[in-house]
Design a protein that fits this description.
Elements (H helix, E strand, L loop, with lengths): L4 E4 L7 H16 L3 E4 L6 H9 L2 E4 L8 E4 L6 H10 L2 E4 L3 H15 L3 E5 L5 H7 L5 E4 L8 H9 L3 E5 L5 H14 L4 E2 L5 H14 L4 E5 L5 H11 L3 E5 L15 E6 L5 H12 L2
Parallel strand pairs: 1-12, 2-3, 2-4, 4-5, 6-7, 6-8, 8-9, 10-11, 10-12
Helix pairs in contact: 4-5, 8-9
Bound molecules: iron/sulfur cluster (SF4).
Length: about 280
């Protein structure tokens, strides 16, 4: 037992959507010799390396698609899906049911003529898939964007307005956007579509961040939900992100006896375990 007491977040690491996507790709690879994911299945190098050893490759362009293509948990656009279906031998859809639920909500609101706002990161593949190339589906990061004169005008003049969230959005950010929107359009339909696993991870982290001097979040720099966990923790305490145990800096732990540990939804259990062992060994 090390000198530092570790408090592990009650909910952390792989979510059900990521786990299901990985299991789907592995099952496909066990029965075929040409299995690829369209884009990286998850934002974690260790997990991607492990998939590669099991025969799961990656293609980034539908034109390169061959054999069986697995669509990742955060989904794709309709144009990409159509291109993959034309090009690949077989397409297996591992889009998370919770992402599909958000897409269904957007489609329904859009079909009724509403302007749809998605609180998320415009360049994230999930947000790109949710927008699906539609001009009347607008992805916004933060409440300040609603002050943009052009967007403000569109919101005020739209027949109806619906607000949803990217599945991994910070609860606090979504609430702030909903509040700002209510000032412009009190009649807007607001659907908090942050998924259950993301909520649980944020709530568990918050419990630790409010009482501990340091939080270590295990996850890749490209993982949106990992970045959100770090951002959330930093509103309350000191927080550091590591991709793996090799990035632990002993200086962070000088003068402290307790630390909280959490992990993004795409961080494998083994990576988390090694970080915990690394802290115990300090
Ligand atoms: S973060 Fe939520 S929506 Fe995204 S894959 Fe995981 S469970 Fe599904």
């Amino acid at each position: 037992m090390g000198r530092i007491k570790i408090h592990f977040a009650e909910a952390a690491g792989f979510c059900m959507g990521v786990r299901r996507a990985i299991e789907t790709a592995e099952a496909e690879a066990a029965g075929s010799d040409a299995v690829f994911t369209y884009g990286e299945l998850i934002h974690n190098q260790a997990a991607l390396d492990a998939l590669k050893t099991k025969g799961v490759g990656v293609v980034h362009d539908p034109a390169e698609a061959a054999g069986t293509i697995v669509i990742r948990a955060h989904g794709i656009t309709t144009a990409e899906r159509d291109a993959l279906c034309r090009q690949a031998g077989r397409v297996v859809d591992a889009t998370c049911t919770m992402v599909q639920h958000i897409k269904d909500e957007i489609d329904a609101a859009h079909a009724k003529g509403a302007l749809v706002l998605v609180c998320g990161e415009p360049e994230h593949p999930e947000a790109i898939g949710l927008k699906d190339g539609r001009e009347d589906v607008v992805v916004i990061r933060e409440p300040l964007e609603l002050r943009d004169p052009e967007l403000k005008k569109r919101v005020e003049r739209a027949e109806a307005v619906t607000l949803v969230a990217q599945s991994t959005q910070l609860i606090e950010t979504f609430d702030a956007v909903a509040l700002a929107l209510a000032e412009l359009r009190p009649d807007a339909a607001v659907h908090n579509t942050i998924c259950g696993p993301t909520r649980k991870r944020q709530e568990a982290l918050l419990t630790l961040a409010q009482t501990l001097p340091l939080i270590v979040v295990v996850g890749d720099a490209h993982s949106a939900n990992t970045r959100h966990l770090v951002e959330l923790a930093r509103r309350h305490t000191r927080a550091e992100r590591v991709s793996d145990a090799s990035e632990l800096d002993p200086e962070w732990f000088t003068g402290i006896s307790e630390v909280g540990v959490s992990a993004g939804a795409s961080t494998p259990d083994e990576t988390i375990q090694k970080v915990v062992e690394g802290i115990e060994g300090l």
